[in-house]
Amino acid sequence: MSLQENALKKLSGKTALITGGTSGIGLATAQLFQQEGALVAVTGRNPEGIAQARAILGEDALVIACDMGKLAAIDTLMEQMKERWGRIDVLFLNAGIGHSGTLTQVSEANFDEQISVNLKGTFFALQKALPLMNAGASVIVTTSIGNRFGTPSSSVYSASKAALRSLVQTAALELIVKGIRVNAISPGPIDTPMFNRVGMPEDILQQRKMMIREKSPSKRFGTSAEVAKLALFLASEDSSYIVGAEVVVDGGMSIQRPIGS
Questions:
Q1: How distant is the alpha carbon of residue 142 from its chain centre?
Q2: Burial state string for 96-106 with b = 16 or more CB within 10 A and e = fewer than 16
Q3: In Å, how far from its chain's centre is CA 101?
Q4: Which of 168, 71, 183 minimizes the C-alpha distance to 116?
Q5: Residue 258 has what pLDDT?
Q6: Which residue among 92, 154, 205, 211 sits deepest, i.e. has the most Cβ atoms within 10 Å of its Cβ?
Q7: Under a CB-based contact definition with an 8 Å cutoff, are residues 138 and 178 in contact?
Q8: Would you state the pLDDT for residue 85?
Q9: What is the mean pLDDT of each run of 10 residues along the chain (261 residues)?
Q10: Which DSSP helix (H) or strand (E) runs through 213?
Q11: 3-state SS assignment for residue 85
């Protein structure tokens, strides 16, 4: 590839860290970032997912086993980033988990795990990444359309994502004075492995998927590749004047209103 061709890439010469990057949205984004010239690091917890990401992303990528709910693991992650590239130009905080359960079914351990990974991990990963970030850097946080309306059996997950929406707005104001932009992606129903790991019985899960397709104005689930394109936009200079935004990608799910309302 010529120097001219490489210069035309949206993330040429940039370094990107994607948490929760070994499957689904994170992995699709890592692949797209690589295609656009970025040096990419991804994190994950599942050994099979980590092995798959290494095979897909190749030797130039940094694939790290990291539990984003543990501060010591985040410290180690940032040390690895510092040692490898010395900086982070794009930080995509995408790691998250969700467990299905009604208010009466949620245990303390279940509650703590979701809040620890989704909220605590995101907060401290951002905090600990800041020494490696300079003016012009971009932070992207994955929230969810579930953060704005009630969904039975997802109270803890939705609450953690609502907290992230608030965090993005505050962090955006604090960090824009340093030239660092913070924005959020709010996915709706996306066909990812995480959607299949919410803990529902298989028959109920399939019923829910059918219901979502029927309810969706687009009559389908979104794809990880579609979300990755939005992440690329927010990571690049194309979005240089977008600060503190939460961009929804949900096929119209969150704007529709019940008939007669």
A1: 4
A2: bbbbbbeeeeb
A3: 22
A4: 71
A5: 54
A6: 92
A7: no
A8: 98
A9: 69 98 97 98 96 97 97 98 98 95 94 97 98 98 90 90 97 98 95 67 75 82 96 98 97 73 44
A10: helix 202-215
A11: coil
Sign of the Cα pseudo-torsion (234, 239, 240, 244, in order) = negative
For the chain, what are the domain ranges?
13-97+104-249
Do 19 and 97 touch, CB atoms closer than 8 A?
A: no
Q: Record the tokens describing residue 128, joined without a space.
A: 């600990």
How far is Cα 26 from Cα 43, in angstroms, rounded to an integer? 9
Residue matched to tokens 């953060």: 147
CB-based burial label for 175 (10 Å; 0-12, 13-18, 19+): buried
Q: What is the CATH number that goes with domain 13-97+104-249? A: 3.40.50.720
Nearest C-alpha neighbor of 24 from the set 224, 228, 213: 224
Structure tokens at 141: 């946080």
- Secondary structure (3-state) at 107: coil
How confident is the model at residue 196, as a pLDDT? Answer: 61
Could you give the residue numbers annotated as active site?
157
Classify residue 231 by burial, with Cβ atoms within 10 Å: 0-12, 13-18, 19+.
buried
